Amino acid sequence: MEEKVTAAKNTTIEGGVLKAAWLIAVVTIASKLIGFVRDMVVANFYGATLVSDAYFYALQIPSLAIIILGGVGGPFHSAAVAVFSKLVGADDKPNEEVNRLYNTFLTCAFLFFALVAVAGFFFADKIMGLIISAGTPELINLASLHFKIMSPIILIGGIIGIYYGLLIVHKQFILPNLSPMVLSLVVIISISLAHNDKSGLVLAGATLLGAICQILIQFPKLRQIGYRIKPNLDIRNNPQFKNICELLFPAILSSTIGQIGIYIDMFFASNLVLGAWTAVVFANRIFQFPVGILVTAFLVPLFPIFSRLAGDGDEDSIRKYFNKGVGVLLFAAIPMIIFIILLAQDGISLVFERGAFNSNAVLMVSEALCFLSFSILPYVFRDSITRVYYAYNDSKTPFVIATSAIVLKAFLNWLLILKLNMGIAGITLSTSFVTLFNATMLGLFMHKIIKLDYKTLFINFGKMLLAGAITFIAGWFICAEFNSINLPKYVFELAKITVVMLACGTLYTVLNIIFKMDYAKELLARLKR
């Protein structure tokens, strides 16, 4: 009888996860598409130039707050999910104790980020001078001005993260994944209306306005759920807030340490050709389009489940859902790498090559993206296993590993860029190696918490990798044949991308069915429906 109840419970959870995953995927695709249009508009108006470099240099610290610390999967979102999912049911109203904890968390986050934002505004020149130490005075001054305009975004970051986490706890998946669309729309409209923004200040102001709009659309839903703002600093004798801090601070440090890796990249990029950092940023944006959809869709609904199962001590279910989630992510990640390597230059040219974004910019972004694509597999594994660490309130291990990776990042950048003269490719290739290092270490140290079923996972991964290798070889021959066809530029690129993706996608799926992979069978079943 107990086994039947457990099976029914697992079936309900799986159904809920898959339903939520598809919903999140659709919403995230819409949001990412608008973000992609935003990048196209920015590329069209600013290209890969001094102005775009200044903006993207200045954006790094605000991005740390609103995307890395406060975004979906960031420390504030993760801490909120890990703690509040054990205190309040998804369909329950928060009681007075939960509301008090929410307000303590919110007040402390507001005060902390307010101090950082004020410091960022007044020390903008020194901060940009340190980050872009090899840049020209003109670049440093313009980046400082952009940073001053965007510094209030730092204040917004942590609060958005808390709101995201609470909404996910209550199964409100749409708003957290849709709200970045608001920022993108504000940027698109603002710079399109400005037409001739030679300094990029309109772009910086629009980014700030978009961030403010992000937080404004979250608040009404939280109030409807039952959360009320009553600021307090009730941090003494508060075990739940202590749990939040124990999880949050190492996670913040881990994310901040990770950001140091980006600052290292920025330092080395400032020694390269003009527009190098813009190329790296666009490569990351393109990379995050498919990978972000994939990871967000599966890990956002799984994380609260991991936390609740960890609280119940149900290790078997955690192993099951971890293997299922990571398996699906790896299955989808392999063809992504194939498509990027075979079609990066054609795709980037088709989408971005217009206005100020010329053929040289296409080559720089393509080169950066191809070497970055190797990080997709360790990336999805790293993000998945990190959720298990957080479910067990362990953010210290990811922090220690991320800290050690910084030394590796600096060494690899020095080796690949300065000694081997790989240029932009050296920056993204070092990122791929560091991501692999992080994923490997996290996987090795997980046994101290729970023994996961790696054997089954990696046997399946080996089969998928074989299918991917055969598919890549076939795709390479198709591209070689296609390159001999004489068509108008954009028609050729669109036709090549369509044919190669359809042929490789079909072959990869068929091979996985032959290898008896359940993921391919599930994909076909869903496509038939």
Brief account:
This protein folds into 2 domains: 21-452, no CATH class; 453-529, no CATH class.
Can you describe what's shown?
The chain has 19 helices and no strands. By secondary structure, the chain is an all-alpha fold. It folds into two domains: 21-452, no CATH class; 453-529, no CATH class. Helix 7 (152-169) runs parallel beside helix 9 (201-225), helix 12 runs antiparallel to helix 13 (359-372) and helix 14 (376-391) runs parallel beside helix 16. The chain is globular and about 70 Å long. The two termini are 33 Å apart. The model is unreliable at 1-13 (pLDDT under 50).
Number of strands: 0
Based on secondary structure, the structural category is: mainly alpha
Helix content: over 70%
The string of secondary-structure elements, in order, is HHHHHHHHHHHHHHHHHHH
Rg calc: 23 Å
Output the number of helix runs: 19
Strand content: under 5%
How many structural domains? 2
Characterize the biggest β-sheet.
none
| Average residue-wise pLDDT | 83
Poorly predicted runs are 1-13
Distance between the termini: 33 Å
Outline type: globular
How do the strands and helices of this protein lay out in sequence?
Blueprint: H1 2-46, H2 50-69, H3 75-84, H4 96-122, H5 124-131, H6 137-150, H7 152-169, H8 174-194, H9 201-225, H10 239-269, H11 276-312, H12 315-352, H13 359-372, H14 376-391, H15 396-419, H16 424-445, H17 454-482, H18 489-514, H19 518-528
